[in-house]
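stage 2 :: seqdesign
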């Protein structure tokens, strides 16, 4: 125990030239990131000083990161959590446009602040500002749909556009909804519920009802987009992973000269029947790189739902990779057995390698 204590060093860092509030971040978010990145160090913050206890090499690394953060704050006046993440990852902090730095998008119902909460959500906000077509691809809970709807509502409130068109494929997520009662709106509403939930957060009920009644905000299944030309509008195609190649092409070619289109999707949650293939991956691949089209890929680090959602997604990703590796191994083993049987020129052995029983003549 005494030997371990002798290996520990204590030092005090001073946050000179910056406000401690700017350094620590809102609700100490920046400091919590530092603490989680250096779990072996004992950190005790006291105003503009931080007492650090730990091994010398860890303290040196910690001090270098703190200096980088302080230097950034001195030059820019503040630092966001996603920029602290960049510094801790050894990268240059990403700079966004002045309108996107704080992530603020608009004020919703009852003055609720709607803002981009993660680095990639801020990147998505900037991509929507700069491009007329944007693909936002990432796992569940990363705020793809919510951010896109918020940007559309902001554009409507600022009179940049005249209407919003929200659409998604009417594909069931692994369960049959059967023949639902009611008119067309009643039948498609269950598929479009996430879009309504986002709108409810951002627009007062009376105003939202007015927008919906007067078709200023239109919510419709993807199939009803065919044959239309949509202009002076913000089109959001949600759950784009459940659209086929032809459906995505059809939606994109509906756009008029003054329209924007945001497509959101999660390639790990495709609910299409087996005879159909998702067109999202192909669509992104074909169109990426065209001027005016942006592609933003969100990750599990952008998950803003319950803290366990991030871990659940990662666990499923690991399981999927293991299953893929196992299938690839079995495939290679089968090919090796077939090759060996072919070299031996033995039909019976080849049939065994294929898992078949050869036909026997009487």
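stage 2 :: out
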């Amino acid at each position: 125990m005494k030997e371990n204590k002798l290996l520990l060093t204590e030092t005090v860092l001073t946050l000179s030239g910056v406000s401690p509030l700017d350094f620590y971040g809102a609700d100490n978010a920046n400091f919590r990131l530092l603490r989680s990145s250096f779990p072996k160090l004992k950190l005790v913050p006291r105003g503009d000083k931080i007492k650090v206890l730990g091994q010398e090499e860890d303290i040196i690394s910690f001090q270098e990161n703190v200096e980088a953060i302080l230097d950034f704050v001195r030059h820019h006046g503040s630092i966001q959590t996603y920029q602290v993440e960049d510094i801790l990852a050894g990268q240059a902090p990403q700079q966004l446009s002045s309108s996107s730095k704080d992530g603020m998008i608009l004020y919703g119902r009852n003055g609720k602040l709607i803002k981009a909460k993660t680095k990639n959500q801020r990147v998505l906000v900037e991509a929507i500002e700069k491009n007329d077509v944007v693909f936002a691809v990432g796992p569940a809970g990363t705020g793809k749909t919510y951010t896109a709807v918020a940007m559309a509502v902001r554009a409507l409130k600022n009179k940049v556009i005249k209407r919003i068109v929200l659409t998604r494929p009417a594909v069931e997520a692994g369960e049959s909804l059967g023949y639902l009662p009611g008119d067309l709106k009643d039948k498609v509403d269950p598929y479009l519920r996430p879009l309504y939930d986002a709108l409810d957060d951002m627009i007062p009920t009376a105003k939202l009802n007015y927008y919906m009644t007067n078709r200023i905000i239109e919510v419709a299944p993807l199939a009803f987009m065919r044959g239309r030309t949509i202009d002076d509008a913000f089109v959001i195609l949600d759950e784009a992973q459940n659209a086929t190649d032809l459906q995505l092409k059809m939606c994109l070619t509906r756009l008029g000269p003054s329209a924007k289109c945001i497509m959101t999707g999660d390639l790990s949650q495709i609910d299409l029947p087996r005879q159909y293939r998702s067109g999202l991956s192909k669509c992104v691949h074909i169109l990426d790189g065209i001027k005016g089209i942006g592609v933003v890929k969100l990750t599990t680090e952008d998950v803003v739902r319950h803290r366990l959602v991030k871990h659940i997604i990662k666990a499923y990703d690991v399981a999927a990779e293991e299953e893929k590796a196992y299938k690839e191994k079995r495939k290679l083993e089968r090919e090796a057995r077939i090759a060996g049987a072919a070299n031996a020129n033995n039909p019976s052995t080849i049939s065994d390698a294929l898992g078949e029983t050869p036909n026997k003549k009487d």
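stage 3 :: structure notes
- DSSP finds 13 helices and eleven strands in the chain.
- The first helix runs from residue 2 to 7.
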